[in-house]
Amino acid sequence: xxxxxxxxxxxxxxxxxxxxxxxxxxxxxxxxxxxxxxxxxxxxxxxxxxxxxxxxxxxxxxxxxxxxxxxxxxxxxxxxxxxxxxxxxxxxxxxxxxxxxxxxxxxxxxxxxxxxxxxxxxxxxxxxxxxxxxxxxxxxxxxxxxxxxxxxxxxxxxxxxxxxxxxxxxxxxxxxxxxxxxxxxxxxxxxxxxxxxxxxxxxxxxxxxxxxxxxxxxxxxxxxxxxxxxxxxxxxxxxxxxxxxxxxxxxxxxxxxxxxxxxxxxxxxxxxxxxxxxxxxxxxxxxxxxxxxxxxxxxxxxxxxxxxxxxxxxxxxxxxxxxxxxxxxxxxxxxxxxxxxxxxxxxxxxxxxxxxxxxxxxxxxxxxxxxxxxxxxx
Length: 378
Ligand code: ATP
Hints:
Blueprint: H1 2-23, E1 26-34, H2 38-56, E2 59-64, H3 69-75, H4 83-88, E3 92-97, H5 107-119, E4 124-130, E5 146-152, E6 156-165, E7 173-179, H6 182-198, E8 202-207, H7 215-227, E9 234-239, H8 240-249, E10 256-259, H9 261-275, E11 282-286, E12 294-298, H10 315-328, H11 331-346, H12 360-373
Parallel strand pairs: 1-2, 1-3, 3-12, 5-10, 8-9, 8-10
Antiparallel strand pairs: 4-5, 4-11, 6-7, 11-12
Helix pairs in contact: 2-10, 2-11, 2-12, 6-7, 8-9, 10-11, 11-12
The structure holds adenosine-5'-triphosphate.
Adenosine-5'-triphosphate (ATP) is lined by residues 37, 97, 99, 278-279, 300-303, 305-306, 312-313, 316, 353.
């Protein structure tokens, strides 16, 4: 009899845990460390994701892919011909950065980053800028940064359509075309205005239509048409040169900054600099319709000058993990990671780029400790 009771108890407990695990939401994540510091900070970022999964009761399945400039040096291409098909099967891509000094600098964007962004219609590049507690900005006196750069991510100045004519001749020239389509402008503008409604209801769109009188007057015109559909959202237009100065002098005027591909590329490095370091910026290349996986990466490059020393700031990579979980619907887990990052910088655990002496691992471990110890709202 006691044996039967023991057996039944065992079946009950086993059944309970089986049910729990089979109901647990599982996300499939393609991990692409890339090159340079990507090999250090991407695994650290994934440790944070794993800790968040354990704490918030979801599961992750990962596969690591070796694409990048290192792969190019071995195989002659940045990624395998099947790479895009393989990555399509995942819920998200967690990416470091590609590029090495030994490899032609024009290849990483053309043969990896732009390919993924375009193929998976990741037309939104979401790049938030905020103040980290305990980090003093070297550039701005503004005490509280909190805005998002929304960069158009698949067209504009980066379509790479152009040519060089007679480059070795005295009359040689190089031409790059910019392409701005109604469809491309409308969809990014709608995303920006909808985002503003969830924030402080303001979109500042960045332009240079006083000199780029064809492409950017069209950009302005279509954005204004979209803006008219959001009468509750304040809409302003600003020239890129004025915008760069305003990032430093009065960043508090921004809520959602809507920019073209090139301007957004430049402005987001400035966004990193006003936060305190390029190493602090996270980002998402987002396909809002979720037809394809979105890709999450820090705003900085592969930083080969500091690779292998365990001094890279992992917070931009970790923030990208939080953005990935938010995109996947794990809102609480994402917020807990950000709280963990805040607690870490507030406690003075800073890497060398911020004037500290903590290693990449120390900072990550502190984020995980804080994450694990946070109370979960029920
Ligand atoms: P890309 O064009 O791919 O964005 P980049 O040429 O702008 O790359 P980065 O690799 O971003 O160059 O590096 C620029 C500078 O910022 C380098 O001095 C690098 O060491 C520093 N840096 C970049 N990322 C980090 C980080 N996570 N932590 C500390 N310093 C960093």
